[in-house]
Amino acid sequence: MTDPRDDALLERARALDAADPLRAHLDAFADAPGVTAYLDGNSLGRPLRDIPEKLAAFVRDDWGTPLIRSWDEQWMTLPMELGDRIGRTALGAAAGQTVVADSTSVLIYKLMRAAAAADADRTELVIEAGNFPTDRFLAEGVAAETGMTLRWLEPDPVHGVTIADVEAVVSARTALVSLSHVDYRSGALADMPGITAAVHEVGALMMWDLCHSVGVIPMQLDDWGVDLAVGCTYKYLNGGPGSPAFAYLRRGLQGVLRQPIQGWWSAADIFAMGPAYVPSGDIRQLLSGTPPVTSMLAMQGMLDLIEQSTIEGVRAKSQSLTDLAVRAYDEVLAPLGVRLLSPRDAELRGGHVTIGHPDFRDVTRRLWADGIIPDFRFPDGIRLGLSPLSTSHVETITGVLAVRDALESGDF
Fold first, then answer.
1. Could you give the CA distance from residue 223 to residue 246 in angstroms, rounded to a whole number?
2. Which of residues 290, 305, 320 is at a domain's end?
3. End residue of a domain, out of 273, 305, 337
4. Could you tell me if 202 and 316 lie in one domain?
5. End-to-end alpha carbon distance in the chain
6. Of 183, 209, 227, 375, catalytic
7. Do 173 and 267 have their domain in common?
8. Residue 109 catalytic?
9. Per the residue annotation, which of 184, 234, 248, 329 is the catalytic one?
10. For the domain that residue 298 is a member of, what is the CATH number?
11. What's the CATH number where 371 sits?
């Protein structure tokens, strides 16, 4: 006999799926045999169904036939062209300010190190103590290289960094504030325009990590005055494991900041092979070595879908999914002592919902074995990562009910 609460939640999910204007896109993604609910799209997006065909065509037509001629015919400008497309589709950024290259860590280092050297009178870097490890580790390394002082923000762990938190630590000594737009743990959505304005009030530069927001949260980097930003492409942009990151550098800082990895691809004349390095004065200055062309292929199909859906449409579906997850949490998980570790207000939340319970490490192992794939985060959190174009409302409820069933059974 089924629980009436389960029936009501599933009926609600089916109704939301039937009314979903983006539901047709669910079929664009490849099936995963044995997986009933994939709730980790905020870590690694599912592949599109046509990726094998596109990769084969690339090998046959773009690489295998023209061979090296494809560099001149199409690949040389791909990092900038794809950057412009990400900027236009997902960032609110005009052309010439975004480039695809390297990993997230390398690009954060390049921009952070360049910003740290921009003004010798500014000696402090500000970062959140709970930010993603890469961001923190890189900030510690840059501070050690430059002799700068790190100032740590310690915000509310559920609701994230606020304008007041930032205003309390920035000063005329601040060179750079580096924060995540969406908290990788709680999903808290930071006030990007408000915090950026507060940082600019003291004359400092503002850098945003967009890894958990690009492709799911609308933003206006140009209008909000953002100076620098970095994001990955393997989460909500579905570029595949290890797909390259992108960097945004607003036009007024190009040719002013100087990135530290002076490879030949960022030289003003890439084929001059001259004795001295002269950097390019445009966004190409953020490149270093040969771009990973093959790894730029998969994300392009996802950008097609986002353009068709609009980023505002994707956001509306995301809020519907996370609202339903919170409702299901209230009804079937809260009575079992599970804690909600994300903001309740969808306007203050990104694309995932985090819940906590002391048994969740073991529960996650059980769920994975049963084809339910959420994400565990130390010490006791499960993230329900709901990628809007590839996740249905029924899949969301199926996952939440599976968490409930595992806890109640104690068989994990």
1. 19
2. 305
3. 305
4. no
5. 23
6. 209
7. yes
8. no
9. 234
10. 3.40.640.10
11. 3.90.1150.10
How does pLDDT run along the chain (412 residues), one tens digit per residue?
468 779 999 999 999 999 999 999 999 999 999 999 999 999 999 999 999 999 999 999 999 999 999 999 999 999 999 999 999 999 999 999 999 999 999 999 999 999 999 999 999 999 999 999 999 999 999 999 999 999 999 999 999 999 999 999 999 999 999 999 999 999 999 999 999 999 999 999 999 999 999 999 999 999 999 999 999 999 999 999 999 999 999 999 999 999 999 999 999 999 998 899 999 999 999 999 999 999 999 999 999 999 999 999 999 999 999 999 999 999 999 999 999 999 999 999 999 999 999 999 999 999 999 999 999 999 999 999 999 999 999 999 999 999 999 999 988 7
Question: In which region does residue 147 sit, left (phi positive, over 0), alpha (psi from -120 to 50) or beta (all else)?
Answer: left
The whole-angstrom separation of Cα 148 and Cα 369 is 47
Annotated catalytic, 132? yes
Please count the structural domains in the chain: 2
Instruction: Clarify whether 234 is annotated catalytic.
Output: yes
Is 383 among the residues known to form the active site?
yes
Contact indicator for 146, 118 with CB cutoff of 8 Å: no
Find where tokens 């999914």 sit: 321
Q: Is 271 a catalytic residue?
A: no
Please tell me whether residues 44 and 117 are part of one structural domain. no
Report the C-alpha gap between 315 and 191 in whole angstroms.
Answer: 16
Does residue 61 form part of some domain?
no
Whether residues 337 and 238 fall in one domain: no
CA distance 174 to 391: 41
Per the structure, the complete domain to which residue 284 belongs is given by: 77-305
